[in-house]
Amino acid sequence: MAVEEKNISYRIYLVAFAIVIMATGIIVKLTNIQWVEGDYYRKLAKDRTVKNFVIPANKGNVYSADGSLLATSIPNYTIRFDAVAPKKEDFNKNVEALSDSLSILLGKPSSYYLNEFRKAKANKNRYMLLARGLSYTEYMRVKTFPLFNLGANKGGLISEQKTVREHPIGMIANRTIGYEREYVDGGVDGKGIEWAFKDYINGKDGKVLKQKIAKGQWKPISDNNQVEPQDGYDIISTIDVYIQDIAHHALLKQLEYYEAEHGCVVVMETKTGEVKAISNLGRAEDGSYSETLNYAVAESHEPGSTFKLIDLIALLDDKKVDTSKVYDSHGGDITYHNRHVRDSKKGGYGKVSLARGFELSSNTIMVQAVYENYKDNPMEFVGRINKMGLNKPLGLPFKGEGVPFIPQPKTKRWNGTSLPWMAFGYGVSMTPLQSLTVYNAVANNGEMVKPIFVKEIKEWNKTIKKFDKEVINPKICSDETLKKVRKVLENTVKRGTGSKLYSKDFSMAGKTGTAQVDYAKGKHTDAMYYASSFAGYFPADNPKYSCIVIIHKPSKSKGFYGGDVSGPVFKRIAQKIFTDVPSTNEIKNLNRKSINQDKDYAKYSDLVSKETIPNVQGMAGMDAVALFENMKMKVKVIGIGKVKKQSIPAGEAIVKNRTITLELS
Predict the structure, then answer these.
(1) Is 457 helix (H, G, I), strand (E, B) or coil?
(2) What is the pLDDT of residues 248-299, one digit of tens each?
(3) Are 248 and 173 in contact, with CB atoms under 8 Å apart?
(4) Cβ 344 vs Cβ 322: under 8 Å
């Protein structure tokens, strides 16, 4: 019996010892968690229940040169309700008035919202959906509703902001305006102005601290953000909406008629290089056209006969020949290294001058002139092209600019036919914008300027950066050569391949081009097609704009020559710009006072002189900003346009350095 009691005692001691060890281990572990690893676990708990969320900054707007809005960011709000947050007495006191307010704003009956709120309160729903797609103005209005005006913690309002990028003028110039796109894997890509100037336009994201209230559901801890987002700068582009609209529809009409595959048109201001219009349209399977690729920037191809302008400049400026030099077209067919160069007119043009050969776009005439004068030193001809900068990209800010190709003597890609083929625009490759810079240089008294798409970057009314004219080549040839070349280009429209475009009431100058694309695959196969082009400037005597039109793969049954397919687009743009815009020959007196301006100044001066806050509703935003800044006040602006609402009501005393928020329409 004693032995048995002794065994029991040993067991009790053993269990007690085990309990002591376990208790000691627990105490050690708790101590370790509390004091040694405490910071880690507290951080882990906080990270799982409270964390920062990014608030995307509003991108800056993209404007046209004439002030029209091309791209803008619109805040889009989703609002929800946390039924646990409000106290019972606050909920019961305000729920009916809140339901009435939501009914007026959102359109559903007040009883619907009242039932949903009570159901959410009973079920302790912390993420009840109220509405999606609210504008900023609607969201600000919701925040003033009964119960919600108590704040996120007491009122239960949960808001989620999403920024949507909109193009107010539709898809016109869409590819050039561009976009920035974020992929599921986190990668970012984009095109056009939006992507090229993203460092200016994107702004800086903010942060908001949110608390986890349920699985996958988070709500802001307070009404104030941890870091306020900073809006991006505005981009002022060179695009003129009026000219853009003309160019877009002129190109579209021609593409539809000729059932073409794709095409582009660019209108550039001669002296500055500012691109006033650019349209790139490609055909979809259903026959419709839209902006899919920026052909004018990205597509490098054989230019065909528009390249002959470079021939003429080189021949005249190097004093090789004069425009009066006569050549024999040899029945419209000559041979170089067993390969034929043919004229589009069967039988050729007989014996004609160099100038006339250019006007008629004779391949045989232009090739003979170039080959005879440069065959012994082809680098003299190619060097002039290189000096113009045509052997390298323009260096545009856009991603994916096409790479030109100019064969260089004494390289592997140079052969016996390189020089004669270059003379009529084959064996070389250029983008439409590169071709346009050459024609623009002729119009601009020999100064070759780089095409530009953005004039300046602004923060409201403050200029951050300006983009001035950039000269590629200060003088591509002598004034004497320019004079002769411009006359020949004008005659090409009057009596050459562009004669169908001629109008005695309006002067234009330019050159047609008809290039066979994929001709090496066989003349009679479906692979070969035509690229029809026209490049030039207007008015011919005092050029203000240069323009290039290229249409790829027009229906051969309807026509494919540059003068028939692309030329009419050029003419339509030129005439509409100058005949549809009211003009005056009156010389303005710059010293004359503007009555309206004087009245406005007097009115604003009167407002400034008062010691109370003026009512600026209906006033232009920029005017209102200037007004309050003159009062030594700080101004925060939301939106664009005219003042719709001001945060400080009229009549209150002016306080120096006080901030007033202006909401613009």
Answers:
(1) strand
(2) 999 999 999 999 999 999 999 999 999 999 999 999 999 999 998 999 999 9
(3) yes
(4) no
